[in-house]
Structure prediction request, 337 residues.
Amino acid sequence: MDHVILHGTPHELVDRIAALREEVGLNYLLAAPLSRESFRLLADEVLPRVA
Amino acid sequence: MKFGILQFFSWPGRHGPLEDVYARALERIGIMDRGGFDAVWLAEHHFTTYSVCPSVHMVGVLAAARTKRLRIGTAVSLAALYHPLRLAEEVALLDVISGGRVNWGAGRGFAPLEFEAFGVPPAESTERFREAVDIVLQAWTQERLTYASANYRFDGLEVLPKPLQKPHPPVWMAATSAPAIDWAASRGFSILMDPHATTTELGEKRRLYARRLAEAGFSDAGRDIPMARLIAVAKTKAEATEVARRGAQWLLSAYAGPGHAKVLQTNPEKTMQVPTINHGEDPLGR
Prediction:
């Protein structure tokens, strides 16, 4: 699961996304949130810190 | 880095009215428009509650009407299932109505039930998909379309409307398998990368695409390569893990459902994600 789904707290997600930029050259994250709260936290707390 | 949302229209367990699924999605799209998201990418599926959106172009028009700056992506238009001229017309119409905000993502699809119901022999689906892409692009860029093949013949046909973006909307091809990546790169298309690959696979595919692109004489520089990832975020790690587990179960149920039964039985190489399940491993359990 850890290798397919990005999961964690907003702070952890920011770190995971930064790692993906390094590991696979991520330049466009096409996020598929798995819950309403996931979308809300992504929009409010993750995106502003990585975009 | 850009952010987009891969918007599904899931109706798990058929809980609640289906119209609520669309209402929530449109509410979310409004939030994307007001926030820092680059695009919503609408997922086309048929005959499954996994995602009930058989027309991304219709929903795209609604999304465009309710937003001002958000780009409207398709992820994807299942091109092999359309008459290519209808596809060209619908996406071009969406581009015009949205003020030139379309990101066109096209894919072959992989669900046998979809191919069967729409009369597309699975063995011909790759050829039909690639021909549809060619015809769409020609219909958009040629004042009058003249085209002849074993499947289609058009003679000086004026396909209208033309897209607002010139020469046409930006285009991405869904590419999960090595042959699909090879083809997209050989044509200089950018690619959409699937949400089911592991991080390691994602890196391997991205490097393969870069190599093939260079071999074909195209530059990788400046391309947006959307990588789809399933996301579970919560205030605590434990809550996020639980959301991820439920998501994994939802995904597995979808891919083990009747729409994919024939793939699982007869053709495990059709997709990158289904064979992993077919070989007895839970791709989300690693």
Q: What stands out?
A: DSSP finds two helices and two strands in chain A. The helical segments of chain A are 10-24, 36-50. The first strand of chain A starts at residue 5 and ends at 8. Chain A touches chain B through 41 residues (CB under 8 Å).
